[in-house]
Automatic annotation (TrEMBL):
It comes from the Bacteria. GO terms for molecular function: metal ion binding. Keywords: Metal-binding. A divalent metal cation binds at residues 50, 145, 149. InterPro entries: DinB (IPR007837), DinB/YfiT-like (IPR034660). Belongs to the DinB family. SUPFAM superfamilies: DinB/YfiT-like putative metalloenzymes. This is Damage-inducible protein DinB. Pfam families: DinB.
């Protein structure tokens, strides 16, 4: 499987899993979602906010990179400057932003070429440090980051008494003949 094909598998998987996470989280009260559970970002809602803030930061960087300018529409979305930025105080406010980002990610990845993913991306970290990374590596990080923190959220949801169900990427991989 090429890197591009891998990203084209990961983008819909990412959206599918985010939908499952949000559907499951909606079974909890606002208080349960905001309860500090001693996780990296405190609560279930805090962790979900972190994922949205991080994606907005990353896609803001990508939108500012000349080859990708115009391919990424972030109009009307928050512009966090920190991965701890609270994008929304409640799940109901966060979900539509998450869904828009997921559609944006799928559309962006679907429009990429092998040459695009070999592009070097110049950006600054949130602490101002200049970085220079290949887009394929950045996309790998973005998808891995999502998986990492969604794993934390599924644990927190399970501890809160709700089950996300099947989370395996394998569920979206078709059988071969």
């Amino acid at each position: 499987m090429s890197s591009l094909d891998h990203f084209r598998l990961m983008a819909p998987y990412n959206a599918w899993m985010n939908t499952k996470i949000y559907d499951t989280a909606e079974r909890l009260t606002a208080e349960e979602l905001a309860r500090d559970r001693n996780a990296f970002f405190g609560s279930i809602l805090g962790t979900l906010n972190h994922l949205v803030a991080s994606d907005l930061i990353w896609f803001g960087r990508l939108a500012g990179h000349p080859p990708f300018a115009g391919r990424i529409d972030l109009a009307g979305l928050p512009q966090p400057t920190s991965v701890r930025f609270a994008v929304a105080e409640e799940l109901s406010g966060l979900r539509p932003i998450r869904e828009r980002i997921d559609r944006l990610v799928i559309g962006f990845v679907d429009g990429l070429s092998d040459a695009d993913i070999a592009e070097a991306l110049d950006y600054r970290r949130t602490d101002g440090t200049r970085q220079h990374k290949v887009l394929a590596s950045v996309l790998s990080h973005i998808f891995n980051h999502q998986t990492h923190h969604r794993g934390q959220v599924t644990t927190l949801l399970t501890q809160a008494g709700v089950d996300v169900g099947v989370t395996d990427l394998l569920a979206l991989i078709p059988d071969v003949d």
